[in-house]
Amino acid sequence: MSKKHLVIVGNGMAPGRMLEHLFEVTDAYDVTIFNAEPRVNYDRIMLSPVLSGEKTYADIIIHGEGWYEEHGITLHQGEKITEIHRNERKVVSEAGREVAYDKLVIATGSNPFIIPLPGHDLPGVLAYRDLDDTGAMIEASDKGGRAVVIGGGLLGLEAAAGLKQRGMEVTVIHLMPTLMERQLDTAAGYLLQKELEGRGIEVLCEANTKQILGQDRVEGVELADGRVIDASLVVMAVGIRPNVQLAQEAGLEVNRGIVTDATMKTSDPNIYSVGECVEVGGLVYGLVAPLYRMAKVAADHLAGASEMAFAHAETPTKLKVTGCDLYSVGDFAEGDGREDIVLRDAMRGTYKRVILKDNKIIGAVLYGDVADGGWYNELLKSGEDISEMRETLIFGQAYQGGAGADPLAAVANLSDDAEICGCNGITKGTIVTAIQAKGLTSLTEVRAHTKASASCGTCTGLVENVMALTLGDAFQLPASEGMCPCTTHSHGHVRRLIKAKGLKSIPAVMQALEWTTPEGCAKCRPALNYYLVADWPGEYVDDQQSRFINERVHANIQKDGTYSVVPRMFGGITTPDELRAIADVADKYEIPTVKVTGGQRIDLLGVKKEDLIPVWADLNAAGMISGAAYAKGLRTVKTCVGSDWCRFGTQDSTGLGIKLEHYLWGAWTPAKLKLAVSGCPRNCAESTCKDIGIVCVDSGYEVLYGGAAGLHIQGTTKLGTVPTEDDVIEVVGALTQYYRETGFYLERIYKWADRLGYDHIREVILDDPEQRKAYNARFAHAQSFAQVDPWAEFVGGKDAHEFNPINIRKLEAAE
Amino acid sequence: MNVQTKTWVSIGPLTEIPRQGARCVKNGDMSIAVFRTSHDQIFALEDKCPHKNGPLSQGIVHDGCVTCPLHNWVISLETGAAQGADVGQTTTFEIKIEDGNVLLAL
After folding, report:
1. For B46, phi and psi rounded to 5 degrees?
2. Residues spanned by CATH 3.30.413.10 within chain A?
3. What CA–CA distance (Å, rounded) separates A523 from A548?
4. Where are the alpha helices (DSSP H) in A199-275?
């Protein structure tokens, strides 16, 4: 009996695997393969080690020439099929060869997606898809220079790491805010970026390529923001598209990929399809595990009647870059009823996150410590109820079962030589001995006697565990004093660590301080954003999404969702022109309420959000800027008329108030900051209940601070008396900066002073001229970045999305 | 007689909504807040907190929830339900992304 004829278009990994399965169960077919690439079947996922030089082409061949001979396969290398004649059941190659089939398998794979940027067709612009691309990249890297990789996904990063290993300078350009955003959450993406940057790879996120530059070959890349990066090689790794052209021209059903049923059969019963070109169950696949499952299913059906069907399963992702351990599987997006368990180890630089729903694992993201990835994936696939091991799940499989399923057990198992505090080199044994010998019972005592956790403090939890083990029931874990439920660190701790560890972004703080949530909450995000703004002027980029709405849109939200707008009036002084402009704005935008505030300025209440920008534009045009009446920052400097007009006035209190407000405006502070300058001790500007108050006297100026007149009423405390206006400005600048650097978010200056001590603050700010000058200089430096009128920025087009509805639908009148 | 049928309405490209933020859709008198999370999931809620009608679109978005800017109620983006000890629910709308465009069921 003559054999049936099986023709395969494509010679990649999926059809190779399919044939292996097929030959195991039947020899019913004569097989002919057409391969557009002039090669045998090789392991495409091993191209990265070839690029980096860890493997060669010979190492990654799956089926050598001998295998094809052994199975009697006719292999046409470098010969592309151009037509399928389904009625006559034959294929035609570009060389004109016609071959008839009983069954046909289309395995045309995918094509790299090339963004049609200007310059994309210049020599030196490559995709990263096959051995030819890899060879071209190796050749280019021999000449040295800089490579730009467009795309920070799996393939792009593997290409970047390989090229770096080959000795090139490498820049990765990625459109999204974090790397590999489809496989990793923000926190893990951040760690990956740090790792790559540590290897000398430059990573530019949220960067959009405008064009590729060069005359005869590529010379550089220009970004949308105007930056130009010189490059002798550009690799585009922005994604792949199923190669469906042949199937489409043959009239098969094609959607994103070649549509098959769960048996891998296309819309023509004699034609199957496997690999990256397939769309099955509405999905297309790019990772090797599902492609191999397709191969198995197709082989089974080709061999005879079969029940086997392809079913979707989550496939874990790993990055094949030596030393970058990451693992992700399943669904890690946010949603209702989902719970996160997060474990970060700052010392080891690891991040583990398991996502639960209904007590089952639905996803996992691991960075640095991926040993338990397989175990989480098993639990995900089996859908096992994990409520029994919920407490210890995140520690991994080694901590499950038996009596030792307890986080304390890990510490109990440590030897006495094990280092607990890395900063001070304190071992477990040292701590235990000190506790026992000296009868220590509190963390403060342990810190004082051993120095364990007294430096950076990240090992505090470990020290507490050692104490719990040593003291038994005598030790009560201190109630969490964390700044919010996302962390056990207090505000003070967080502020100190941001400086000590040089943390300059919110994800960096969350990782280094082992946050227990993926992206914080509405309590900690605004606090962290303030700390970073205050600590790294000119370096940190303000995260708008971590600010409360008032600070994001620079207006005060009111109970009905409208806003109030307060222009700044320096020292409470205005002009007829300003007043006219305010009146015109109120008329033009039908602003319902115009009110004089307690801070000596005018409040426009009831402005609709979409009117904010035009209102600001009009006020800007009249020379006014935002009064920051919404800000955790400098609000107003209230004044009396002083020696200019008042018969009791001793100094120019109005003029000093204006100077102070010009110096201080724009500053962010832990909580709102209100000042006043009174021209004499009669105190008409009410300086003695302000955050900072000045009272002019004949001999100079009394500087007062720490007043409150809100929920809490408290008179100010005197810092001291200084002789000149310049002294006042320097002292106020220094005091404000000291408060900015050491205050806790939302802590008013009087609470801050109560905490630090008024005597201590006077010693630093008034009695020590060197420290005063240093604090004031840091304040002036920060102000050079902070004094930008937010209204003008918005009027100029910044963040336009904040102010307008994305879409307006007018409803038809009801009939 | 009116028969209410749901129609998918294209409201604009996903990229017009900031990550960890929201934009509003005005549907007649009603304002609908369309949220985008840091991982590009989208959700639609009536722009009204069940507590005192605060505009949820103006809140801070974190871990699948939004915190209302008026009194810090935390509302689930998926179900519209108040979290923690607070009780209340905001109307949700079906929403999806097709070819980078956001479609809202109205």
Report:
1. -60, 140
2. 634-786
3. 10
4. 245-249
Q: Are strands A220-223 and A209-213 parallel, antiparallel or unpaired?
A: antiparallel
How is chain B split into domains, by residue range?
A: 16-105
Q: What is the DSSP code (8-state) at residue A765?
A: I
Residues A173/A221, Cβ–Cβ less than 8 Å: yes
Q: What pTM does this model have?
A: 0.68
Question: CATH 3.50.50.60 occupies which residues in chain A?
Answer: 4-110+242-303, 125-238
For residues A706 and A750, the answer to whether their CB atoms sit within 8 Å is yes
CATH of A549-626, one of 3.40.190.10, 3.90.480.10, 3.40.50.150, 1.20.1440.230: 3.90.480.10
Per-residue pLDDT tens digits for A377-433: 888 888 888 888 888 888 887 776 544 445 577 677 777 887 787 667 788 898 999
Query: Which two tokens mark A713?
Result: 């009423």
Given CATH 3.40.640.10, say whether it is the number of domain A634-786: no
CB environment A418-455: b (16+ within 10 A), e (fewer): ebbbebbebbbebbbebbeeeebeebeebbebbbbbbb
Say which of A557, A560, A805 has its CB closest to residue B23. A805
Q: Please work out, in degrees rounded to the nearest 5, the angle formed at the alpha carbon of residue A568 by the alpha carbons of A567 and A573.
A: 120
Enumerate the residues of chain B whose CB falls inside 8 A of the CB of residue A799. 18
Whether B16 and A814 lie within 8 Å, measured CB to CB = no
Average pLDDT of chain A to the nearest whole number: 88
d(CA B23, CA B46): 12
- For domain A325-405, give the CATH number: 3.30.390.30
Which of B12, B28, B77 minimises the CB distance to A811? Answer: B28
Paired residues of A327 in beta bridges: A318, A366
Cross-strand bridge partners of residue A366: A327, A352
Q: Is CATH 3.20.20.140 the classification given to domain A4-110+242-303?
A: no
Residue A173 has pLDDT above 60, yes or no: yes
Total number of residues shown for chain B: 106
What tens digit of pLDDT does each residue of B56-67 get? 999 999 988 999
Query: Residues 495..524 of A with a Cβ closer than 8 Å to B: which?
Result: 517-522
Q: The tokens of B71 are what?
A: 């009194």
What is the enclosing helix (H) or strand (E) of A160?
helix A154-165
Cβ(A209)–Cβ(A150) under 8 Å?
Answer: yes
pLDDT in tens, A33-84: 999 888 888 888 788 888 888 888 888 888 888 899 989 999 998 899 999 9
User: What is the rounded CA–CA span in Å between residue A204 and residue A785?
Assistant: 23
Residue A810 has pLDDT above 70, yes or no: no
Domain A411-541 has CATH 1.10.10.1100: yes
Identity of the residue numbered A156? G
Minimal C-alpha gap between A65 and chain B (Å): 44
In CATH, the number for domain A125-238 is: 3.50.50.60
Domain B16-105 has CATH 2.102.10.10: yes
Between vectors from CA A297 to CA A295 and to CA A299, what angle results, nearest 5°? 65
Compare CB distances from B27 to A340, A520, A809 and report the shortest one's residue.
A809
